[in-house]
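Hi V.,

You were right to ask for the full record rather than a summary. Here it is.
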Amino acid sequence: MSYRNEMSREGGRHHTDPTSSRFNVRSRYHQRGRLNNRPVPNRRPTAGDDLETITVSIGRDLTTDRTYSHNPSTRGGRVVRPGVRPREIHPSGGSGRSMDRDNNQVKWWRVSIPQAGAIGKDLVMSTLKAHFTRQLLPYHYFIDRETNMGVFFVNSQQDADMLKRANRKIDIQNSGTLSIMVSQASCPAPLLDADLRRHFKDYIVNRRFDPQTFQLQLSNLSDDEELSALGIYPQLNKQAFVRDIIDIINQNLHMTRQLDLGSNNISNLYEFRNLNLNNLEQLSLASNQLKSVEELAHLKQLNHLSHLFLKDNPIISLNNRRNGSQNDLISAIRLKLPQLKRIDDAELPAQIGFAIDIESVNLPKSVAHCVPQDMQSFLAKFIDEYYRLFDTRGRGELYACYHESCMFSLCIAPTEGSIVPTKSYRYGPLIYYSRNLKKIFDDNKRVTLLRHGKTNVLDFLRINFPLTKHDGKSFHVDVLSTANNRAIFTVNGLYRELDQGPSEPIRSFQRTFTCLQTPSGVLIIADHIMIINATDAQVSNMARAPPPPSISTTQTMESQSNSIPSVVDPQIQLVQKFSQQSGMNIEFSKICLAENEWNYDKAAQKFQECQRMNLIPPDAFKKP
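Predicted structure:
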């Protein structure tokens, strides 16, 4: 006896002590801070101990809730931890849910049973329920396909402790003892196997849907006792569970006109984009966790939705906290769901729109590039002559093209889809003269990078701009304005930089000219060029042979310059151009243009129609 008592005082365990050794493991780790720096004696309770002390000892050793305090107190000669609340001992074990004291949420435990799929899902569950005197309420019981393991969840700590103590103590027919593994989980897995899905569908269709009013009531599903009895814990904040519900509704309840999803902790509407309820008129999402108006865009397919409930959602409180007006919130919601006529209890005014009774508006056809007919001859000659001079060494002859008070600016920009990254095609010192307003924020530097006066502009083009060779076949022109004796137009195209070593870079450019009519001729008063690296498609087109000419007003400027003779009368120029492109002689070309009011596009269209119908006589194609 003296030996046994000595061992007890030192925290040891005698071989005759019936208490399991696993209940004494903590005595080695909790000695610091004790009143007498001695471990708690590990002895069986005797008749002299009070009921409260026994309850604390049992609750501390046999439950999964191990919350301890570091400030013990003595009671009846025993060390009692005040952080451990005494637990009532019920004969039936109790059936209430366990709640997290910090955030008042339901606590869950995951129960895993290996080889339950091989033994039989129903046999395992019936054996468990028959073994326990306390009623077991499992949730989301399914067989994991990969591990063949049976998995279910419980939300009662008593159930979790009961299952944990039953590990390897339950015999099952022809399969030995059951291994039961219990661990804490944040919530049940949002999975419904075929059995649970069938029960859930029957419950929704038969218990929650009113065929008289076509109303589907799915609010507050998590507190539904009938679903709990079926072993289903709804989680509409999990996309996998929402996907199952939407699939059931689409297949079985597509006639629904009113749908209530309130109080379901919904924070995301992404899966609701697949909700196909063409007759849905009213939807309640009240008392959920929606925080953004953007979520409502997933409901845009509900064309007949006219009434939406959103009260008691963070989206409302956040708007109030930001001092936003209700009208601003309603406007943002109507941008996502313009079909709404009522939000909560507020009637929405009719939207102001234009041509709402017209389903489609036919816009006039537009061409990719626009050059007025009276400008074609001038621009063809100007661009051809200008770039011929620009591509010569020294560029000295460009002096006659610019006005004395002209301005010049350069912008170098990166591009997506370039054949190589911008940094690989180095621009050299030219990059330092780039006036890219997205890169340069200093106003003084922006002014400095503008070139003023003919001398400064020509010096920059002769000294700093590299030698080039432009591809005339890539040119496209847009005329922006021709008012007040001024012409503003842009030239888009490609050029190759010469004298740059074996890899001569190909650049894509857009150049905007502003020209002024002066007594000495047409002069450039503003010149802006933007440069980017050419893309793969542009380089391929540059290397490809030019396409055959066609009757169109959007021709490349090189073909225009070759086809327009140097005559003054614009009608003669038009006749000769039409004759060259259509293949008809001058006489018939003039007749065709005159009959179509000298409208080149109209005459070309008429020519193509007559040619298709074989109405043009052979004499029209005979040339002297």
